[in-house]
Design goal:
Layout: H1 10-34, E1 41-45, E2 48-52, E3 62-63, H2 73-85, E4 90-94, H3 101-108, E5 112-123, E6 136-140, H4 146-158, H5 166-175, E7 181-188, E8 191-201, E9 204-212, H6 221-235, E10 240-245, H7 250-257, E11 261-271
Parallel strand pairs: 3-4, 9-10
Antiparallel strand pairs: 1-2, 4-11, 5-10, 5-11, 6-7, 7-8, 8-9
Helix pairs in contact: 1-5, 4-5
């Protein structure tokens, strides 16, 4: 498959980071509305968002800082203070196109790099139907399947059927109901083999939470889920789709086979305020 490559610049990154930031803000709203007894909060800082929905939950992270201009020391004081008050690490996703003022300040403040995610994107067009995915079928998950979808997704990420903390599961089940978000099951012979999601806003499709159950790996599950989400993006009139993966792994290879191109690396930077390590997350 071939698609027209994208020029990676500030405008493209701002569109991607802005979509991700808005999605995170909507995730926070879903948790606040559906889990009113949960301690949660969200602040907007320096063009980005910083939600908190629970300790060691991947939704409690900041995205989009510095995409609209300089980031002041007061901005960073506010960011650190927000997460410190909740006993949480500051978990920051940073675009290389963020204002340069941010980079030096983070180093001086004790932030450290923990990983680099590869951001991949592709144009969405009226392409011909994709190749057959054999005996794999993909269907949307219904609202009453939220718990089953979250359980399967977390099992796919962790590689085990071990139970995850109830607080984490409940948060992701609430997020299942975000407007513009669609969740999918992939099945092989009627048995759940994998999960994935897509969030659509302003003609931009954010592909997230792709996972495969251990018993179904290397059978084309993620290819089928990518193709299904691309079709949804086409039907919604999107002209851009993006996703994040760990660099050089199977997820990146699968995405590139479906026409996605690496456009930049997003730095994940942490400043620890809590004593315990991060648990498994839905990416």
């Amino acid at each position: 498959m071939t698609t027209t490559s994208l020029f990676a610049d500030h405008a493209l990154s701002a569109r991607i980071e802005g979509t991700d930031a808005f999605f995170l803000s909507q995730c926070y709203e879903a948790v606040r509305e559906r889990l009113p007894d949960r301690v949660s909060a969200c602040v907007e800082i320096a063009g980005g968002v910083a939600p908190f929905v629970g300790l060691r939950i991947s939704l409690s992270r900041s995205v989009g800082l510095g995409m609209c201009g300089p980031v002041s020391e007061a901005n960073l004081d506010a960011l650190e203070g927000f997460y410190r008050r909740h006993g949480s690490d500051v978990d920051l996703g940073l675009s290389p196109y963020a204002d340069p003022s941010l980079f030096a300040s983070l180093g001086l403040r004790g932030f450290h790099l923990v990983e680099l995610d590869t951001v991949l994107a592709r144009r969405v067009d009226a392409a011909t139907p994709d190749a057959s995915t054999g005996n794999i079928t993909v269907r949307r998950a219904t609202p009453d399947e939220a718990a089953a979808w979250v359980d399967a997704s977390l099992a796919g990420f962790s590689g085990t059927d071990a139970n995850v903390p109830g607080e984490m599961s409940a948060s992701f089940e609430a997020v299942f109901h975000v407007a513009g978000s669609h969740a999918f099951f992939a099945l092989i012979d009627g048995v759940v083999a994998g999960t994935a999601g897509v969030y659509i806003r302003a003609k931009t499709a954010n592909f997230f939470a792709a996972s495969t159950l251990p018993h179904s790996r290397l059978r084309g599950v993620q290819t089928a889920l990518l193709q299904a989400r691309l079709q949804i993006a086409r039907e919604a009139g999107c002209d851009l789709a993006f996703t994040r993966t760990l660099p050089g792994g199977p997820s990146q290879r699968n995405a590139e086979r479906q026409g996605f191109h690496p456009v930049y690396s997003r730095a994940r930077m942490i400043k620890p305020f809590s004593a315990r390590p991060l648990d498994q997350e839905i990416a």
